[in-house]
Amino acid sequence: MRLLDLATLLVCVTAALAFLNARFLRLPASIGVTVGGLVVSLGLLALVGLGVPFALQAVDLVRGIGFDDFVFEGVLSFLLFAGALGVNSHALWSLRGPVLSFALLSTALSIGLVGVTVYGLVGLFGLNVPLVYCLLFGALISPTDPVAVLGMLKQANVPRRIETLVAGESLFNDGVGVVAFAVLAGIAAAGGEAHGPDLSAGGVLGYLGYVALRAVNDFVVEVLVTLGLVLACTAVATHLHVSAPLAAVAAGLLVGSLTDRRPAALSSREKFDSFWHLTDELLNIFLFALLALEVVVVRFSGQALLLGLIAIPLVLLIRAVSVQVPVTLLGRRHGFSPFTRRLMIWGGLRGAISVALAFTVPAGPQRDLFLVMTYVVVVFSIIVQGLTVGRLAARAGEGTGRTLH
C-alpha cells in the first residue's frame, strides 16, 4: 500500500471512530477507538464470511499495510520521545536504581516466566511449539505500553514519586522488551542477526538537538529541530544496529532535562509541551485504530481464543510476581507504598506495540496462534484495565497526597 493511501485510510478511520466515541460512547479516546474499531472489525469479518465484494476488497487492502514497519519506523520513536520529554528527569535520576531494576529485572523475569508457562500450556493442548517461540511471546507481551501508562498518570493526581517510578519503568521496559524480542527472533529465525541496545546514540543526538534549540528563539524552528531529532535517532539507530526506542528515550530525557535547567533555551515552554502532547495523543489514537484494522487479517480459531483467554490471568499473575521481586529486594532502602505495587501491576497496560511485535514473529503456525493470543490480552488490557486503573490512580492520589515521597 502506498504511503498516501495508508495515511488517508488511517486518518479517515481514526476520525470516524473518534467522532463516534465522542458523540456516543464518551470513553477515553484510546479505549473508545479500540472498542469502536473492534465492532467495525467484527462487522467486516461477518461480511467477509458472507462473501460481500466490498468486504473482501477491504481485507485485501488491510493486508497490504506494513504494520510493524509503520509502528517501529514511523510511530514508536515519536511516542517514546514525547513521553520522555514529560518525565521529571531529576526525580527519575533519584530513582534510577528502582527504575532500572524494574525495567531490567522485572522484564527479564516476565519474559522467562511467561515463555516457560506458555510452553507448558500449549503442550497441554497438544501443540508442538518450540520454547524459543514461547519466549518470543513472553518478550512481546511483557513490556507495558508507555503511551497508555503515561496518559493515565497525567490524568490522575498520583504522588510525584509514584508517577516518576511507574512512568520511567514503562518507558525503559518497552525498549528492553524490543531488544529481547529482536535477540530471540534472531535465534528463532536460525541465525538471523540480533542487535543490542545503546543509549549513547540517543544521548549524543539529544545533546546536539539541545544545542540547536539554545541557538534559536523561534517556536516553529524548535518544533522542526525536535521532529528532525526523532527521525535522526530512528535512522541512525537503524544503521548502527542499536535500539531505536531506547535512543529516542535517551534523546527525550536529555532534551527535557536540559531545557528544564535552562528554560530560556525554548521560546515558549508551554507551546512546546502542548505540541508534543498533541502529537502524543494523535499518534496513540492512530495506533489503536490501526490495531483494530489489523484484526481482519488474523486467522482466529477456537483453540487460539481459549489460549488467549487463559493468558489474561496468567500474564497478570506473572506481572505481579515480576514486580514483587524488585520490591522485595529494594523495599528496605526505598520504601515502596502499596499503591506503587498496585499501580505497576494493574496499570501495566499492554497496547499496540505488543501486537506490532506479534506481527513480526517468524512465519509459521505459531505466528497465527500468538497473534490471536496477543490480541485477546491487549483488548482486555485496554478495555478492562484501562477503564478501571484511573480509579486506582485516583485513590493513590487521595491516600498519599501529591508529594515527592
Automatic annotation (TrEMBL):
Cellular localization per UniProt: Cell membrane
Residues in Cation/H+ exchanger transmembrane domain copies: 13-393
Keyword Magnesium in annotation: no
InterPro entries in the cross-refs: Cation/H_exchanger_CPA1 (IPR018422), Cation/H_exchanger_TM (IPR006153)
UniProt main location, coarse: membrane
Keywords (A to Z) from UniProt: Antiport, Cell membrane, Ion transport, Membrane, Plasmid, Sodium, Sodium transport, Transmembrane, Transmembrane helix, Transport
Membrane topology note: Multi-pass membrane protein
Bilayer-spanning residue ranges: 6-25, 37-58, 70-87, 99-124, 130-153, 219-237, 282-300, 306-331, 343-363, 369-394
PANTHER family given in the database record: NA(+)_H(+) ANTIPORTER NHAS2, SODIUM/HYDROGEN EXCHANGER
Similarity comment: Belongs to the monovalent cation:proton antiporter 1 (CPA1) transporter (TC 2.A.36) family.
Protein name as annotated: Sodium:proton antiporter
